[in-house]
User: Fold this.
Amino acid sequence: MARLIGSFDWSRTNVGSLCEWPPYLRSAVDVMLGANVQTVLFWGPQFLALYNDAYAPTIGDKHPHALGKPACEYWAELWTDLEPLLRRVLETGETVSAKDRPFYIERGRGPETVYFDISYSPVHGDDGAVAGVFCIVNETTELKRAQDIERQLAAIIASTDDAILSSDLDMTITSWNRGAERLYGYGADEMIGRSVLLLIPEDRSDEEHELFRKIGRGEHVPPYETKRRRRDGTFVDVSLTVSPIYGGAGEIVGASKIARDITGKKQFERFQAMAMGELKHRIKNILSTVTAIARQTFVNGEEERAAARTFDERLASLARAHDVLTSGNWEEADLRAVIDTALQPYSPDRFQINGPAISVGAHTVTALTLAFHELATNAAKYGALSQDGGRVSINWQEDQDASRFVLSWKEEGGPNVIAPTHRGFGSKLIERLLASELRGEVRLEFAPSGLICEVDAARHAEGAEAS
Assistant:
């Protein structure tokens, strides 16, 4: 700024050329240029602007054009606010100061409300009159905004239903919000300064020590569910989020914890598990009744008894499909789990299974389980599983939009396959069940090296029921 002020044509202003400047103006400018704080000098009745390097960034794109110009030209948007302050100093000789004073300004980043600590002082001429206003300012906008933010966060912490507390690395509690008071039953005055272990069930103290060791090492601690002890000695299920607290030098000095009461969630999960267990029990009873009826019905001869055994096996396969669903949320299941469950009667060494983790709908689970039962039964009687060394490869992959999948069953190492002259019930079940029920396409190839079944189906085929 010293160079810009020195090269500026001051003769075109009412200050006059540099060689004509009075000593008190030169002294004020020298002090301003030598200062490490943001300083601007408004001189004369027009308040011509002179400022130092520290001040230049605060006016954005007004610099350097504002140098030597009347303040009303380059501070036009805030002139009605700024002029009374400058005139007060100019006309009365008072010093005007304020902390975090707001100003509306436009400095190339759009309209802003900014904040400054200000001290406006008079510069007296030889005759004692005020010749200019010496302004020392410090922009506090970012600090002020951080304090808005801090107050908002404090209000959120104070009003949230979640229990929020902080502690140092020695597990001593340093803060405690109202949510913590409501959840745990202790007031802040009772808990601040005490160990967080007061809230930990005795059988989970090792869990807490390990948690603080991880926090101290800077390791990420994912949210988890646990139990905490209330003041009355009862325990509450909570979902816990833990984050490190950093000191001024960037070191970890403690941990903050947010605990949410999940009692209702746990009660629902227990009810759901009980309901699923009851449903599973009733389904098995129904299937057992159907099996008993079938055995009593097909008793006339060996052929009927073989049919009854086949019927029993298919019902057992259906029961396994329901086992997969009741172990989850009843609406869908992992495809690999479906395959593993369907093939439980057989040695896993005979299968090579590969494919990404995908879930399939309940209707798809039932259809696939029955189809895999038929394929495995056929392989055990006539195909790769009927002799040593025979194997079955099962592979699948998703399509691009993840709404469908392609699956293949390929037998190898079994006896030579001869294409049947007519399709049995099992083949028809596979083709019709998978094609119609899963809104897909099925290809059965009786290759000499082994049966190949390829399926292109919808992951969630429940819509097929409605159609």
